[in-house]
Amino acid sequence: MILQCPDCATRYRIKDMTPGRPAAKLICPNCSFHFTLIAPKAEGELPSIQSGARVLLVDDAHFFREMLADLLLPLNLNLLLAATAEDALMQLNQHPCDLMLLDLNLPDKNGRDLIREIRANSQIGKIRILAMSGVFRREEDGMDAIRAGADAFINKSFRPEDLREKVRKLLAR
After folding, report:
1. The pLDDT of residue 48
2. What is the 8-class DSSP label of residue 75?
3. In DSSP terms, which residues pair with 38 in a beta bridge?
4. 136-172: per-residue pLDDT in tens?
5. pTM of the predicted structure, to 2 decimals
6. Do 63 and 138 sit in the same domain of this protein?
7. Residues 130 and 116 occupy one common structural domain
8. What is the dihedral of CA 99, 59, 73, 35, to 10 degrees?
9. Half-sphere exposure of 8 toward its Cβ, with a 13 Å CA cutoff?
10. Domain limits at 143?
11. For residues 86-95, b (16+ Cβ closer than 10 Å) or e, as one string?
């Protein structure tokens, strides 16, 4: 069966999906776009691609990006990944997103500076931003991110259901 990435339109050959099998999360090897392939309900029916909100996960730790992607799996989101502020800006300019989850401690730029830069850009400035930090010492740290332009803040020691709830609320706005 031939499958086409809903983001970059690259085509791939995959094994046929068994009817009744649960949905599969796929990552396009060309553009790293995450999407869901829903199994056919009956024999001979083609699987469909489920489209959801597009969310950019920005964190320099590969493990944490993958963990976030796994935790957000139940929300059926289309995920993009970036490891640096530069990668995030490139992704946002190429692929308009509904929400960005942003680690404030990136190797190439302070997350608060990146938020200000995004907010100043008329093309991408309307994106909702959930700032995250593992270095959280006081309430003022979260407020600094909000003052920079983030819509919400979460400490990286969050409970998975708290993260999903914040993401749902931000996407519902």
Report:
1. 47
2. G
3. 48
4. 556 777 899 999 999 999 999 899 999 999 999 999 8
5. 0.73
6. yes
7. yes
8. 70
9. 14
10. 54-172
11. ebbbebbeee
Residue 133 CA to its chain's centroid (Å)? 16
Same domain, 111 and 73: yes
* Alpha carbon distance 79, 131 (integer Å): 16
β-bridge mates for residue 3, sequence order: 12
SS3 144: helix
pLDDT tens digits for range 47-78: 444 557 899 999 999 999 989 988 998 888 88
Residue listed under structure tokens 């590969």: 62
**pLDDT greater at residue 39 or residue 109:** 109
DSSP 61-73: -HHHHHHHHHHTG
Taking alpha carbons only, the member of 27, 31, 49 closest to residue 40 is: 49
The H-or-E segment that residue 123 falls in is none
Closest CA to 76 of 9, 32, 132, 24: 24
Nearest to 163 by CA among 99, 92, 68: 68
130 token code pair: 């959930």
